[in-house]
Amino acid sequence: MFTKKQFSIALGLLCVVPFASYAFWGNAEDVNAPSVEITQDAFEKEVLFSDLPVILDVYAEWCFPCQILKPMFAQVAHDFKDSCKLVSIDYHKNLELTSTLAIRCFPTMLVYRKGKIVQRFEGFPGSKQDLEKFVQEVVGRGTGSAAQN
Hints:
Elements: H1 4-19, H2 28-31, H3 40-48, E1 54-59, H4 64-79, E2 85-90, H5 95-98, E3 108-113, E4 116-122, H6 128-143
Parallel strand pairs: 1-2
Antiparallel strand pairs: 1-3, 3-4
Helix pairs in contact: 4-6
């Protein structure tokens, strides 16, 4: 049978084909966008006590869709920096915290308002435009305008 590591690698490889078309979604400056990575030590300050809504991307290093999402997420974080905070956390490097978040798949995005999880999005969002739309909906719900159910 397979070891846990071999299974994870095989599962990651199965993700390569369907998501390969997203690998070249943007230009070079998007790929080199600054990191928005946090650790469990900064979680309380950056997420729970934030005045802005926060979207927390929980990812795994071995997850191919997570790696494709990383530069898109950083670019969108820069674009929405005044209205919403987007941060990422590595699931396996921060197990004390992330094991309490009921993560079932990668990537998972959790939306926080005033320290509480108010929305969960599991899986790859599809494109940078889809991610921007998701963030815009999160921001709109917070202001009372553009709120849609």
